[in-house]
From TrEMBL:
Gene that encodes the chain: purK
Protein's name according to its UniProt entry: N5-carboxyaminoimidazole ribonucleotide synthase
Entry GO terms, CC: cytosol
Function: Catalyzes the ATP-dependent conversion of 5-aminoimidazole ribonucleotide (AIR) and HCO(3)- to N5-carboxyaminoimidazole ribonucleotide (N5-CAIR).
Subunit structure: Homodimer.
Organism: Lihuaxuella thermophila
Entry's Gene Ontology BP terms: 'de novo' IMP biosynthetic process
Sorted UniProt keywords: ATP-binding, Ligase, Nucleotide-binding, Purine biosynthesis
Coiled coil: none
HAMAP family: PurK
Length: 384
């Protein structure tokens, strides 16, 4: 079979490999950590920094094609590799999605709405942008952020003064976004193949806790119109960007039912992990089908599903209850050694006849703090 080289060895790489092995592919990972989630299941592993061109070239020499599994990667390396090797996702998709400003512009160009924003380089830029957009607002670094890192919510003019000193030293660029009082968050993972074939997975409704994804629910508890519109917008973004592989499109649902795109990810997405257990084709298999030019599989779900993340602070309780978890609960464990707070250690997917039943099964185990009333509202089908 073909050998696929993966830039990155996190849990996304690991799940791509676990799914790709059954298809007969071999895998080599490149990651600075020797014992990363990906390397534990890969055929070969190269230890190297992501911006180490020599290491990337060694990966490329041994691979028939190269993919990346996260976007906080140096585009220079990918640009170099694609001169002489097959990198189906390409450097352009990476350049756009690693940079919030480029990404927003690309989404707007696709004719899809985003939250109002301003480009910020100096403290003066911030002051005038806050005057224009109003409070509260969210300041985000243009590159390098994930799980809410590199983000500051600004509620009052006084809070500007308490931002870290040296933030605006001219070396970093930010965007300021208007705070969106969304009623729900949704996401759609879309696959687009090297042949241009497109398939969208069923949209999920997502709950975040402390800026980290906590739970994804499918079928999304939203109206049929919102469901269709979310899919339509996501496919439009995928086609406009000529994505090869996957693009995950995160969205806010507004009180009037309108949708805004929050951000994109050019790879399998945490909110698409439910597809592993609930869909005819998982997002990981679909990703491999898309980059290798196989016909795309059916993205249809054969069961309602709720996915919950296992963070470092949940790991011990999950382990203690492992032997008596409900049979509907599928555990995925990423093989990370240190269970740090906020670190994604694994996830579970619960399949049941209805979302309500799946939620009850999750409430029946003592691993996560129960849903708050506000969270329950955000996963109700009715719009408020
Ligand atoms: P991810 O781990 O999803 O890549 P990230 O660090 O790139 O996260 P975002 O997805 O931009 O960050 O934001 C994280 C969360 O913060 C969002 O899912 C949403 O809950 C909240 N958020 C971000 N931007 C806004 C906004 N403009 N208005 C309201 N809430 C927001
Ligand atoms: Mg992000
Ligand atoms: Mg996000």
């Amino acid at each position: 079979g073909q050998t696929i080289g993966i830039l990155g060895g996190g849990q996304l790489g690991r799940m791509i490999i676990l799914e790709g092995r059954k298809m007969g592919y071999r895998f080599i990972t490149l990651d600075p950590a020797r014992d990363c989630p990906g390397s534990q299941v890969a055929d070969e592993h190269i230890v190297g920094a992501y911006d180490d061109l020599a290491a990337a070239q060694r990966l490329a020499e041994r691979s028939d094609l190269i993919v990346y599994e996260f976007e906080n990667l140096s585009p220079d390396v990918v640009r170099q590799l694609e001169q002489s090797h097959c990198v189906p996702q390409g450097s352009r998709l990476l350049e756009i999605t690693r940079h919030r400003l480029e990404e927003k512009r690309a989404v707007e160009q696709a004719g899809v709405p985003v939250a109002p924003y301003r480009v910020i380089e100096t403290r003066e830029d911030l002051t005038s942008a806050l005057q224009e957009l109003g409070y509260p607002a969210v300041l985000k670094t243009t590159t390098g952020g994930y799980d809410g890192k590199g983000q500051w919510r600004i509620q009052t003019p006084e809070e500007v003064a308490s931002l870290p000193v040296g933030m605006f030293n001219g070396e970093r660029q930010y965007i300021l976004e208007k705070f969106i009082p969304f009623v729900k968050e949704m996401s759609v993972v879309v696959a687009r193949s090297v042949t241009g074939e497109v398939a969208a997975f069923p949209p999920a409704v997502n709950l975040h806790r402390r800026h980290i994804l906590h739970m994804s629910i499918t079928p999304a508890p939203v109206s049929a119109e919102i469901m269709r519109e979310a899919e339509r917008m996501a496919v439009r973004v995928a086609e406009h960007l000529q994505v090869v592989g996957l693009v995950a499109v995160e969205m806010f649902v507004l009180p009037d039912g309108g949708l805004l795109v929050n951000e994109l990810a050019p790879r399998p997405h945490n909110s698409g992990h439910y597809t592993y257990d609930a869909c005819h084709t998982s997002q990981f298999e679909q990703f491999l089908r898309a980059v290798t030019g196989l016909p795309l599989g059916s993205p249809a779900a054969y069961s309602p599903a709720v996915m919950v993340n296992i963070l470092g602070e949940h790991a011990e309780r999950l382990m203690n209850q492992f032997h008596r978890l409900p049979k509907e609960m599928k555990v995925h464990w990423y093989g990370k050694k240190e269970a740090k707070t906020g670190r994604k250690m694994g996830h579970v997917t619960v399949l049941a006849d209805t979302v309500e039943q799946a939620l009850q099964i999750i409430e029946s185990v003592d691993i996560w703090p129960p849903l708050t009333d506000k969270e329950k509202d955000a996963i109700q089908n009715e719009m408020k």
